[in-house]
């Protein structure tokens, strides 16, 4: 039985925390670093365009990831409804990942293959116009707020540093690609990209 002194020792707490953290790093992170090239070769993932990166930021800022997952689990009903289960290689360019855990709304992993851009616009402006029972709030103002693109190059440079294969030319053109686009339009472009890169790998 542990003594009171042992369980209340700050030194032991610090040592135990360091040991657990070190073990986690060795088990969870190091193998992925070693297998990075192998995972990249297997991956069908494509880097997002500048507008899609901006749209992803809108998706995050509006809290879409709180109610929607982007993680099809290897469970028959989910696979039948949403497509094949996610693979490790699907998310190599996701920083941060948006797998989520709460399914208030449907999973969006393959959303880009399900609806048109016009449907996405209508759904964002007034969800109940296309899904009468939807609980989702409306986001009409997103189509009124215009992006300047002033920060997109810095964001893409950061992603490039993390391993996303953007060329310097793509980054240099990013601001002009985003400038003048509304947040809603950028979000639609991001939503339409979901699942497009893995379309050829869907199990029938």
Number of helices: 11
Give the helices and strands as they follow along the chain: HHHHHHHHHHH
**Rg over C-alpha atoms, rounded to the nearest angstrom:** 21 Å
Q: Helix coverage percent of residues?
A: 40-55%
* Unreliable spans: none
* Largest sheet descriptor: none
Q: What does the average pLDDT come to?
A: 87
Note the gap between the termini: 56 Å
Give me the count of strands: 0
What shape does the CA trace take?
Answer: globular
Structural class, by secondary structure, is mainly alpha
Strand content: under 5%
Pfam families: FixO
Domain Cytochrome c: 50-195
Organism: Shewanella pneumatophori
InterPro entries: Cyt_c-like_dom, Cyt_c-like_dom_sf, Cyt_c_oxidase_monohaem-su/FixO
SSE map:
Layout: H1 4-7, H2 10-34, H3 36-42, H4 50-61, H5 64-67, H6 76-82, H7 117-125, H8 152-161, H9 168-172, H10 174-178, H11 183-193
Supply database-style keywords.
single chain; 204 residues; mainly alpha; 11 helices; globular
Task: Please describe what this structure looks like.
- With 204 residues, this protein is mainly alpha-helical.
- Helices cover 49% and strands 0% of the residues.
- The protein has helices at residues 4-7, 10-34, 36-42, 50-61, 64-67, 76-82, 117-125, 152-161, 168-172, 174-178, 183-193.
- The longest helix is centred in the N-terminal third of the chain and has 25 residues, at 10-34.
- The chain starts with a helix and ends in an 11-residue tail after the last helix.
- The mean pLDDT is 87.
């Amino acid at each position: 039985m542990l003594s009171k002194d042992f369980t209340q020792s700050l030194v032991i707490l610090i040592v135990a925390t360091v040991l657990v953290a070190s073990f986690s790093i060795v088990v969870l992170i190091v193998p992925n670093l070693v297998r990075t090239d192998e995972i990249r070769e297997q991956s069908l993932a494509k880097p997002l365009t500048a507008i899609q990166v901006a749209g992803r930021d809108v998706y995050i800022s509006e809290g879409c990831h709180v109610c929607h997952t982007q993680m099809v689990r290897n469970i028959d009903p989910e696979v039948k409804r949403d497509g094949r289960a996610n693979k490790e290689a699907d998310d190599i360019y996701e920083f941060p990942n948006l797998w989520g855990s709460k399914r208030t709304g449907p999973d969006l992993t393959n959303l880009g293959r399900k609806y048109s851009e016009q449907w996405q616009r209508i759904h964002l402006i007034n969800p109940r116009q296309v899904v009468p029972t939807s609980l989702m709030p409306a986001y009409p103002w997103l189509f009124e707020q215009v992006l300047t693109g002033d920060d997109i190059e810095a964001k893409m440079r950061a992603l490039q540093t993390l391993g996303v294969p953007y060329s310097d030319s793509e980054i240099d053109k990013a601001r002009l690609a985003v400038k003048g686009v509304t947040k809603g339009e950028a979000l639609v472009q991001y939503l339409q990209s979901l699942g497009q890169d893995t379309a050829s790998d869907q199990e029938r």
